[in-house]
Design a protein that fits this description.
This protein is α/β, with parallel strands linked by helices. It folds into two domains: 11-138, Response regulator (Rossmann fold); 167-357, Hypothetical protein af1432 (Orthogonal Bundle). Helices cover 56% and strands 7% of the residues. Strands 2-1-3-4-5 form a five-stranded parallel β-sheet, with helices on both faces.
Length: 359
């Protein structure tokens, strides 16, 4: 027989330096909620930090010793707790400046003393219900966005792996380039603030990196899998994959203005450019090369070195790092090389963990 279990009661934090006020509010709400009490703002902040999202509501006085209600609100705003935990101010202060300040700092409601018991109870219940609905909606949206991004990523990776198999690759190149690119982008800003990117842009570039060699789908597989050194014309043909891939993306009949498509175009066309202008196809120099293409170019060089191909044996990790830092794979952005040195020690571990996640 299935045992019916009651859902855990929601928690409310009451913050007031008056024990009498706390007792009145606790008696008023204790029948519906588990009540936690704090006698000053500092104690309240400690309890909010401890319970976090388990708190359904904070009832907060303003005038208190050690840390007043405004300071508590400011700390909750700073820590982003206010986004998930609603706060109702209950205070005898009734000036417009106090009320405005409370709302500016993120308070959901403001109740003045003396208060009506039914008003406090109803407003508390309504606030908790409203935040609960918002959390539910936020969860549904996040789930939808995650599912869409997952499907988008899956389709891009399927296409990219088809290209890999034509190239005689093991099938891990796309995953590795994506992971290394992400690590480099998350580290690069430490060495130059101009490369500071929001997390969504980093994720976008990492996703677009999967298409860096899409132009190879237009090439003869015999060229891609030839074990001997390529002749001059064969090499020129293979190198043309960067332009062909960019052209394919540019001619997409839809979504040409989408950020993902724009990053994919940059990466396809310019991931073989080098900092000193010695790369191809356009001989760009320095920051003429988009940061997306710079990062993917280095990630591509590293993974190509460390994995076996039909025309070469794999190079050990330490040797590959040394070759890149010494310029044997072409010149890279000095800041990017510093970022590469910073992540080099954890590259192998992170790539191994990434491959296990994809199983």
């Amino acid at each position: 027989m299935t045992e019916n279990r009651k859902a855990p009661r929601q928690k409310i934090l009451i913050v007031d330096d008056s024990e009498l006020n706390r007792s009145i509010l606790a008696d008023m709400l204790g029948g519906d909620f588990d009540v936690i009490e704090a006698s000053n703002g500092r104690e309240a902040v400690e309890l909010i930090s401890l319970y976090g999202g388990k708190l359904s509501l904070v009832l907060l006085d303003i005038v208190m010793p050690q840390m007043d209600g405004f300071e508590v609100l400011a700390k909750m705003k700073e820590k982003k707790w206010i986004q998930d935990i609603p706060v109702i101010i209950i205070s005898s202060e009734n000036t417009s400046q106090f009320i405005e300040r409370a709302y500016e700092l993120g308070a959901t409601d403001y109740i003045q003393r003396p208060f009506d018991t039914n008003v406090v109870r109803r407003r508390s219940l309504n606030t908790i219900m409203l935040y609960g609905k918002q959390k539910e909606l936020k969860g549904l949206i996040e789930e939808s966005v995650y599912r869409r991004e997952r499907e988008q990523s899956l389709m891009i990776n399927i296409l990219s792996h088809i290209i890999e198999f034509r190239d005689g690759d093991s099938g891990n190149h796309i995953t590795n380039v994506r992971k290394v690119s992400e690590m480099l982008l998350n580290t690069l800003a430490k060495y130059n603030a101009k490369y500071l990117l929001p997390q969504y842009e980093i994720s976008l570039i990492a996703l677009a990196s999967a298409l860096h060699d899409i132009g190879k789908i237009t090439l003869d597989a015999d060229y891609l899998n030839k074990p001997e050194k390529l002749g001059k014309k064969e090499l020129e043909t293979v190198r043309a994959h960067s332009l062909r891939g960019a052209e394919m993306i540019k001619k997409l009949p839809y979504a040409s203005n989408e950020p993902l498509v724009q990053r994919a175009y940059e990466i396809c066309r310019w991931h073989h450019e080098r900092w000193d202008g010695s790369g191809y196809p356009d001989g760009l120099t320095g920051d003429e090369i988009p940061v997306s293409a710079q990062v993917v170019g280095l990630a591509d060089a590293y993974d190509t070195l460390t994995n076996k191909r039909v025309y070469k044996e794999a190079v050990p990790h330490s040797k590959a790092v040394e070759m890149i830092l010494n310029g044997e794979c072409g010149a890279f952005n000095p800041d990017l090389l510093e970022a590469f040195k910073s992540v080099a020690g954890t590259l192998q571990t992170n790539l191994r963990l990434s491959s296990l996640e994809d199983i």
